[in-house]
């Protein structure tokens, strides 16, 4: 059974993660502007999309389908990002086993690694905070 019941729950958590990231470590997102790339994170189970437009300063994060053509496209299950951000699964292993499928200039995609690492620190706290609010 998937961790997230539906896309509304998934988006609620992801919005909270990115808001916390912007508040606590704005340099992580700001560093994406230096790359001038558009990143699309596509999820399944449930279906969801997060776009990060690094061509704007500060980068714009959009939740939901966007028809902008990304430079880097990452696809994974919502459970995979959940496991990576809870440190239950290594990001590198998820990439090498195909649990995260990447398209585009992969060396340039490495700019996302600090964002993913910082999200690993924030995600468990965000989940706990959202559970306490419910």
Account of the 3D structure:
With 134 residues, the chain is of the alpha+beta class. The protein has a single domain, classed as 2-Layer Sandwich (Nonspecific Lipid-transfer Protein, Chain A), CATH 3.30.1050. The chain contains 6 helices and 5 strands, in the order ααββββααβαα. A 5-stranded mixed beta sheet has the order 3-2-1-4-5. Helix 1 packs across helix 2 (26-33) and helix 1 crosses helix 6 (113-133).
Descriptors for this entry?
5 strands; 6 helices; single chain; alpha+beta; Nonspecific Lipid-transfer Protein, Chain A; 5-stranded mixed beta sheet; 134 residues
Concise synopsis of the structure shown:
The chain is an alpha+beta fold.
* Low-pLDDT runs: none
CATH topology: Nonspecific Lipid-transfer Protein, Chain A
- The best one-word shape is globular
Architecture in CATH? 2-Layer Sandwich
- The DSSP helix count reads 6
Tally of distinct domains: 1
What kind of sheet is the major sheet? Answer: 5 strands, mixed
- The mean pLDDT is 93
- Termini distance? 21 Å
Q: What is the CA-based Rg, rounded?
A: 14 Å
In oligomeric terms, what are we looking at? single chain
Number of strands: 5
Q: Can you identify the CATH superfamily? A: SCP2 sterol-binding domain
Strand content: 15-25%
């Amino acid at each position: 059974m998937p961790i997230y019941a539906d896309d509304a729950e998934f988006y609620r958590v992801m919005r909270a993660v990115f808001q916390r990231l912007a508040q606590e470590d704005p340099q992580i997102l700001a560093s994406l502007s230096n790359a001038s790339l558009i990143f699309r994170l596509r999820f399944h189970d449930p279906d969801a999309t997060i776009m990060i437009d690094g061509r704007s300063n500060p980068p714009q994060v959009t939740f939901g389908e966007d028809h902008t053509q990304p430079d880097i496209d990452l696809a994974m299950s919502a459970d995979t990002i959940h496991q990576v951000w809870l440190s239950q699964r290594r990001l590198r292993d998820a990439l090498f086993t195909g649990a995260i499928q990447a398209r585009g200039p992969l060396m340039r995609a490495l700019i996302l690694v600090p964002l993913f690492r910082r999200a690993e620190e924030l995600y468990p706290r965000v989940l706990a905070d959202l559970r306490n609010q419910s």
